[in-house]
Specification:
Length: 407
Amino acid sequence: MDGALSHIRVLDLSRILAGPWCTQNLADLGADVIKVERPGVGDDTRGWGPPWLKDADGNDTRDSGYYASANRNKRSVTINIAAPEGQALVRELAKTADVFIENYKNGDLKRYNLDYESIRAVNPSIVYCSVTGYGQDGPYAQKPGYDFVFQGMGGIMSITGERDDLPGGGPQKVGMALSDIMTGMYATIAILSALMYRQQSGKGQYIDMALLDCTVAMGSNQALAYLMTGNIPKRYGNAHAAVVPYQPFATADGHVIITVGNDRQWQRYCEVMERPDLAADERFTTASNRIVNREILLPEIARSMRERTSQDWLERLEAADVPCGPINNYKQVFENPQVVHRQMHRLVPRGDGAMVPTLASPLRLTETPPAYRKAPPALGEHTDDVLTGLLGKTDDEIRDLRNSKVI
């Protein structure tokens, strides 16, 4: 079955995570994504191992699991864009493309005549997306940065982590590269929107994506609360600023997450805990009162929750329709019956016959679902195929380009 984007070709000059995450989304939906990489080196994350991908004989390859997480369903072409001949090849490929995406430092690609204006000159309908840390303008536009920097600068770390007055208190980053991932997701939305506009108007356009912008936007209700009141949001650790109880509690043998979102759930929760005193106490009967009196209420809940095992609590709470859940490590995640049922763990084939694990896309479409056609490519795996198939280069021309280290 053809994917929803099987008519779209993407020229991908991005590296690390935000850009590749975006283009993997497009590739999963059928787009022909051509990943342009430096000869001999490739995407920086290829070397960010261990763990390493295995070949068909079970031996380590040169490609890391980190690289594999964001590059399935793509074709890899090696081109030296520092060479004029390499720049010419990229412009030739851009003529055949619908989308051009890059994450070079501001101004870098202009030196190679691969900036938006140069690419638009050869393909006026191109959708060109630049991903940078701070955007194309402003006082920080030339600064470099990684995900960690933007989680701190964009406010995420100010509301993540335990309260300062408790053991272990202080700011924490999210345990995965949240700013990168969300910038990749926002970039995916922007590119699809630009393609829809082009379908109606025939016009391409330029997309300016910044990790700082996306991180600030992720602040959602917390950031808006500050703008509305002037009160700076605080860290609550695993608790919630506006819902009580909404946090993990220690049990006899572990922890269980409790998320009581309304007063009906609160009454049912009290029944499960066998605490009619809490259910009847006017200090706790409404959501607002539970927030105001959280310091009195939470120790009482904590005392009751230590009386049973996690599994016992989960069974009782689920039977009473009280929202709850375990805190799983990733072994437990992939053993979870719902995760197994949803097939979130897939295997995709490498060119050498090895099967590579991958995470399924969460996009579920009935007519054009994501496909898992091939594993992340080896460096330069498709250089000859792309140059002959798309640009009509002869074997002699390819040999000359390789001898001159252009590819």
